[in-house]
Records
---
Amino acid sequence: MRALVGAELLKLRTTRAWIGYVVALFLLSGIAAAALAGGAAAFEIDSPEYQRDLVSTSVSAGLIALLVGITLVTVEWRHGTVTRTILVTPRRARVLVAKQIAGFLVGVVLAVLAVVVVLAVAIPVLWGEGGGFVLDAAMMGRVGRVVLAAALAGAFGVGVGALLKSQTFALVAAIVWTLVLEPLLRALLELVEREGAADFLPGQALGAIDGSVEDALSPAAGGVVGLAYVVGFGVLGWLRLERSDIT
Amino acid sequence: MIEVERLTKRFGSTLAVDDLSFSAAPGTVTGFLGPNGAGKSTTLRAILGLVRPTAGRTAVLGRPYRELERPAQQVGAVLETFDAHPGRSGRNHLRVLARAAGLPTSRVDEVLALVELTDAARRRAKGYSLGMRQRLNLAAALLGDPEVLVLDEPANGLDPQGIRWLRDLLRSFAREGRTVLISSHVLAEMAQTVDEVVIIHRGRLVRHATMAEVEAMAAGAARVRSPDAERLASLLADAGVDARVLADGLLAVSTTPERVGEIAAGHGVVLHELTAERATLEEVFLELTGGAGEQ
């Protein structure tokens, strides 16, 4: 399994697509951090809550990790590399698990990068306002939870990609779901006074982990629900892959 | 060793492979022949665990491909599709496969040299010519120094030198006691390479024969000229030989010249001409497959 995960990470490093993901990550988290840091009134900036909110602007790492996770599978169908992948590893479940682990690790790397970007943007602003940045245990916990949420998003993406197969469809579906459908669904659930159910939607659950969603599940419960999505979509994706004739 | 037992594969309403059984033995190069659309690729992909049979089973080295312990080291495959990412270099493509198969990177450079792709190895695959793509596919197949080779139309895109190189490689594989199964829609292309042929048409087995048998089928005809053609024809017919009078004194006979000579001498018939007629291998192939290739 170690070798398979290594092969998946090598696949990612040996085409140029990763450059696009890193650029998107820098833009999304950099802009979000600049907006929050720049809009802060002086009396807020030393409060731990504010600073933790600042760190949460790195959650864009989760969305990018989700997209990378999806493409880990869909790119193989798109370019026909799935043939060689399955020839080398005919037990298809092993391929998917290796990709999930790779997606998880990619999520970790992206989230750490995003936190670095956010801090690089925010700390000079905070200093300029006469404040400082407090790296206490609570802050470290917040960073850790941002990383975990992005990692789960990466692994979740692998299952989504395996289930949907088509690269364009899967990427568009993931973005539309995250930005439009899930918020819409949440609003509808609120209308019928079932907002508790909304907590179990994937974006809400992952948001509960990193704290970017309010009135959500506890981080631990969010983690359990997030893991359930990883496993559930992993199984659905595996069923689709297992039944596919590779021609 | 490759075994196919009563394999059937249906795609929707299309029957691609229909109750097909054959085997390819170690130490031989087995040609897998059929017109385009005969079901060759589907059969090969079923052998390789890529396509799920509707019925029947396939085995490589005694077990289904999916259950092989180290597939890359046991079976090498070249399929008709190019299976490298266009944005990845040939060398990195092989590095990925080597990593997944637990092979050292040094092996990547060995196979690149073997297929003479070293110079282009660091370029992205999208710029590769058809021949280079085929060489990269071959390199991927050879990476694990496998016991069994399965090749789908591997000569496509290779130049004459490349084809000769491939032929020598396959012969040496067979000499070492390994198994080679190679598909083609052109029999003549394989005549010098294969020991046995498995011919299929519309998903069904037409014939499994040695190459020597196929060549004997091609050899069994003669042309005879005799001033006594009508009598010779009836003598041949009595001996159970199919003979047609073509024109003045000219006969087309479906047996060897030796046999015609013996019958003519036995009855004192004068011959003016006796020529062996060889059907081309292609004619044999077309006859066996009913001349009905779906081109």
---
Amino acid sequence: MADPRSYPGAPRWVKMSAIVVGVLVLLLFIRIHMGGGHNTPFAGGLDHHQKPESGHR
Amino acid sequence: MMMAPGLRKFALTAHIISSVGLLGAIAGFLALAVTGLTSPNDQTVHAAYLAMELIARFVIVPLAFASLLVGLIQSLGTPWGLFRHYWVLVKLLLTVFATIVLLVKMPLIGYAAHLSAETILSRADLRATGIQLVIHASGGLLVLLVPAILSVYKPPGMTRYGWRKQHEQAALSQPVFEQHA
């Protein structure tokens, strides 16, 4: 019989949330690396407008 | 160190005000972002993006930090702790994540206000920036709704650390004669 003082593990809602977050991160990763990268907020406007930061995306 | 009941209630009030205020401010920000994206009137667009920059800088960022700071103080000063219960830990992670994204996106908000202030509006640039702002404001609102829901429902579940601490405290609180029985 299991020791009643042993840790019962993470509850189901935590496991489900972790799976959902994992899937969302994976989808985001795929979108960024498979063709979503061209629609950046500063795309097309850098030559004509002053950019507030120096880093490139 | 546990807080006195009066101080605990004060911290709870400050935490609720800052967290709910943050949600309201982001909802207002989202309304302005949608207006800036969809309005055909240049003056309305300029006013919307200017107001968004002011709201982000003087309302959303201070409220985000206030919510995070008061939440930290409150959790460390009460039996809930910061790492003992999953719902507290998830709240902390989501709030930190939302605050980091907000700070990263602050230049984008300033850029939209700058673009909208130009005499000849560059609609294409402004549209691309506006779409990003609507997406981030919607995402931020959804992400910050989760901590509000968790605070009300407080779903059960202790972390391994919390479980261990609870058993240590239970062992310490048992009378000596019970331990030797």
